[in-house]
Design goal:
alpha/beta; four-stranded mixed beta sheet; 10 helices; disordered N terminus
Length: 268
């Protein structure tokens, strides 16, 4: 418990940490044609590129080629939106440097097995809210998840707010950014990992399943749920029991409940 004397110091530290994150986020913004392309070719990891709507010709072609080569998502937006992101001379392109180092999913399982642990992974399909992503990562770290797997496109960007919400967990737990969640899921199954997908249409209840073996939990967005192809691929689909049918759990809350059940069954 904080004493009366230590409380102001704690608040000050919290404010300084927030300011540091804000400053770090600003430093991850690169704009201008040569600076962005040079940074990519120098090996800087990019979360995404923003390209101004209406740009055509050799430069657009070069951006498309380099983004494909380095597997960087590209978002096309109006000039007005780009001007809100930066007042600098962006020349029609803005790059966002990654705040974390991404991992290869194929490297995770061997490391887990070498440590004589039972794999536990989270696959996040369409979770686009940075605060939800951060909250999920915080629970994942608490319950010993070995990796979080997200798609390269259609996922929340891991920015300063996401890291702050995760209480730093996103800088510690491995995050794998895959071209296709479906392909990632198939690879996990071939490696002996069972796929459990959360679905409001499922009949099986969460606590009727066995999470004792190698497990990957698949979470979907709150509005659309898990992609139908992933649901078909899943070894089991399940629902979290609840008294009310009016609304479903927030995705980060649902993730915490599911991870608790896995930990309970494993005796952690």
């Amino acid at each position: 418990m904080l004493s009366a004397n230590s409380a102001p110091e704690y608040v000050f530290c919290q404010k300084m940490a927030t300011l540091a994150l804000m400053s770090k986020e600003k430093n991850t913004l690169i704009y201008g044609r040569h600076p962005v392309l040079d940074a990519i070719q120098a090996g800087q990891t990019m979360d995404k590129l923003i390209l101004q709507q209406g740009i055509r010709g050799p430069f657009e072609k070069e951006v498309r080629q380099i983004s494909k080569q380095y597997k960087i998502p590209v978002q096309v937006v109006p000039k007005e939106r780009m001007n809100k992101i930066t007042r600098g001379n962006h020349q029609g392109i803005i790059g966002f440097l990654a705040l974390i180092d991404y991992h290869r999913l194929g490297d995770i399982l061997p490391m887990v097995y070498e440590q004589s642990e039972v794999p536990l992974l989270l696959l996040l399909d369409g979770v686009t809210d940075v605060r939800n992503l951060g909250a999920i990562a915080r629970s994942a770290a608490c319950f010993g998840v070995h990796a979080i797997v997200v798609p390269r496109k259609g996922s929340a960007m891991i920015n300063a707010e996401a890291i702050k919400t995760s209480a730093g967990a996103l800088t510690k737990i491995p995050v794998c950014r895959e071209d296709s969640l479906l392909a990632a899921a198939e690879m996990l199954q071939l490696s002996g990992v069972q796929l459990f997908a959360s679905s409001l249409r499922a009949n099986q209840k969460m606590y009727d399943l066995d999470f004792g073996g190698p497990t990957a939990l698949v979470m979907g967005s709150e509005d659309r749920g898990v992609n139908s192809n992933l649901l078909k691929l899943a070894d089991q689909t399940f629902i979290i029991p609840q008294r009310s049918t009016v609304d479903s759990f927030n995705v980060s809350v649902a993730a915490g409940i599911m991870l608790y059940e896995v930990s309970r069954q494993r005796g952690i």
